[in-house]
């Protein structure tokens, strides 16, 4: 094909609004009053541990499930609510599942052409062919999905989801079937294609790093609820509670008590302006926020273990007054080995303070 467009045709991106959305399976509240607005063209990742309700929310948006209360709007149209329910095929959505859900008995070209029901067969095949070309899969058009690698199958699934130019693209753990070496490149490619298409996009993932790479915003979920919504930086820097902090980064948790607006711990005192006087609290210290200098400065510590991990090595450092050694991540320091005494210094910018009785 000579006249292959290099960019994916632009969709008319939809605004998605969820208002007080509830859904339960028996006694399990899989969606427990979700309010969320996603702007046209925005990529939002639904992030959270297994069973928190991410897939249920995606299925509600798609129209595969119907909410027991609340409303879902696409642009100004109510697609789910007490007064209306629009079935999935009428919602102008594109879906990409974890297992790609390609039809094994159809060629890659026919898989992509499948949703183009409004076109003649010849038009649908031509359009599907262009979509495969854009994904650099044109040479596999006549082949069957099983002959492709996982990454290529994922791209066929993405071509199929985008060929109808949906206003909103919904992806459920789209990269989890790929091995870790392939995942990074397929992720980056997918992000380019989705941005080019301009579609609003909701991606379900349980991987915080993936959410930070892909999402304009991240919606952090727990037990059917939305616990925090914001940019990746906002969620990483200012997690709403200790559980959210733990979810984003390995942390050292050091207990202490609040006095004079600060938490006092064996590692020193840190500002705790939002906490009550006398309250038990936890200082969460990121491993990269701990520095080891010559003994005699800072807090006395001893290196218990050193593991070479490439760019940043991991050290475990015992400090008096703390039950477990601190996990420290630093560039490998020549000669710093297990058994050595060090002076521990904490970078206050890497310390978050939370009430001890978090969820
Ligand atoms: N069809 C169903 N019948 C009964 N319970 C269900 C059904 N689907 C989901 N659930 C329950 O609803 C809750 C939310 O499930 P959901 O699959 O939405 O979570 P998730 O965050 O996507 O989890 P995962 O990451 O493991 O896929 C879980 O407790 C789950 O066991």
TrEMBL record:
SUPFAM superfamilies xref list: MOP-like (SSF50331), P-loop containing nucleoside triphosphate hydrolases (SSF52540)
Family to which the UniProt record says this protein belongs: Belongs to the ABC transporter superfamily.
For this entry, the protein name equals: Iron ABC transporter ATP-binding protein
Listed under GO cellular component are:
ATP-binding cassette (ABC) transporter complex
In its UniProt entry, the species of origin is given as Ancylobacter defluvii
PROSITE patterns listed in its UniProt record: ABC_TRANSPORTER_1, ABC_TRANSPORTER_2
Signal sequence, renumbered to the chain: none
Q: Which GO terms describe its molecular function?
A: ABC-type ferric iron transporter activity; ATP binding; ATP hydrolysis activity
- Which domain of life does the UniProt lineage start with? Bacteria
Please provide the record's keywords in A-Z order: ATP-binding, Cell membrane, Ion transport, Iron, Iron transport, Membrane, Nucleotide-binding, Transport
Query: Source organism lineage?
Result: Bacteria, Pseudomonadati, Pseudomonadota, Alphaproteobacteria, Hyphomicrobiales
Any single Pfam family the record assigns to this protein: TOBE_2
Task: Provide a GO biological process annotation.
Answer: quaternary ammonium group transport
Q: Which ranges carry the ABC transporter domain?
A: 16-248
